[in-house]
Amino acid sequence: MLTILFDGIAYGMLLFILACGLTITLGLMNFINLAHGAFAMTGGYVTVVMMNRYGLLFYWCLPAAFLVSAALGAILERTLYRRLYTASHLDQVLFSVGLVFMAVAAADYIMGGQQQLIQLPPELSGRTEVLGVGIGRYRLFTIVICAILAIALQLILSKTRFGSRLRAAVDDRRVAMGLGINVSAVFALTFAFGSGLAGLGGAMGAEILGLDPNFPLKFMIYFLIVVAVGGTSTVSGPFLAAILLGIADVAGKYYVPAIGPFVIYGLMIIMLIVRPSGLFARGGAR
Fold first, then answer.
1. How far apart are CA 119 and CA 52, in angstroms?
2. Rounded Cα–Cα distance for residues 225 and 11 (Å)
3. Is 131 left (phi over 0), alpha (psi -120 to 50) or beta?
4. Helix/strand/coil for 10
5. What is the distance, to the nearest Å, from the Cα of residue 282 to the centroid of all Cα atoms in its chain?
6. For position 131, what pLDDT does the model report?
7. 214: how many CB neighbours lie within 10 A of its CB?
8. What is the number of other CB atoms lying within 10 angstroms of the CB of residue 70?
9. Low-confidence ranges of the chain (pLDDT < 50)
10. Chain Cα centroid distance, residue 191
């Protein structure tokens, strides 16, 4: 039971890192970017190439995955995404879905359609016994890294000047510009940071979730569930939602394998009925 709980928390933490970039773009920038999984896939493939073709250490691949995905996000934000900030949500959805299919086709053409595998460092492989409970070392590593990132992200958005400027730019763009805030630069940096987090999640998830060209399509619904259940007004909501959904998914597939994949959807429906605006939405459910 404790092993399942631990694995569920690790899975939930990974879902949070994968989805928190979408929380930022959707909740803070009011932009529906369904191509978010493509940036996660980019980070995963960067890790695969660096480790399998160039023999670099896994630890070096994680910051590289973040930086490459962030750079790609910055380029696409400057050339494509910024043109749709004022467009309708339908236009944003159609545009980003188109990018998803382009990314899938590009990954299949360049890397092939087979499942990609990576070899973790020896110190992250295997399990460690703690109080009689078998704990996967890599899952423990995932929990620690994701927890640090979640705390850092919350502090950046709530306690720093950049976070204040971002909230001001979202609340009233014209007033923010009148106060001297470079809204365009703030949005570009925010989008790049969210894309980088997705790439980092994809790099860390390559061993647990697997990696192939259909990654953005397979996990798109999971990203949306985390954001929908957790809400977009805070980072804490998606964090808690990701952990709860991760535990429910792992436990469901273990205890009731026949209907395991549907447990997460049932939990989502219940949570949205109770808290339709998100777990930590102001004013409660309406």
1. 8
2. 14
3. left
4. helix
5. 24
6. 66
7. 15
8. 25
9. 283-286
10. 13
User: Where are the strands (E) in the chain, listed by range?
Assistant: 127-130, 133-136
The pTM is what? 0.89
Local structure of 135: helix, strand or coil: strand
Give the integer Cα–Cα distance in Å for 26 and 33.
7
Q: What does the radius of gyration of the chain's CA atoms come to, in whole angstroms? A: 19
Structure tokens at 187: 């949005």
CA dihedral 165, 166, 169, 175 (to 10 degrees): -10
DSSP state at residue 26: I
Question: For residue 227, what are the CA distances in angstroms to 1, 21, 75, 224?
Answer: 27, 10, 25, 5
Looking at the DSSP assignment, which residues form a beta bridge with residue 85? none
Q: For residues 257 and 3, what is the distance between their CA atoms, to the nearest angstrom?
A: 17
Q: Which amino acid is at 199?
A: G
* Cα distance between residue 120 and residue 124, in whole Å: 6
Yes or no: say if 212 and 30 are a contact pair by the CB < 8 Å rule.
Answer: no
* pLDDT given for residue 132 in this prediction: 67
CA angle 31, 32, 38 (to 5 degrees): 115
Give, in order, the Cα–Cα distances in Å from 155 to each of 102, 213, 229, 235.
35, 34, 22, 10
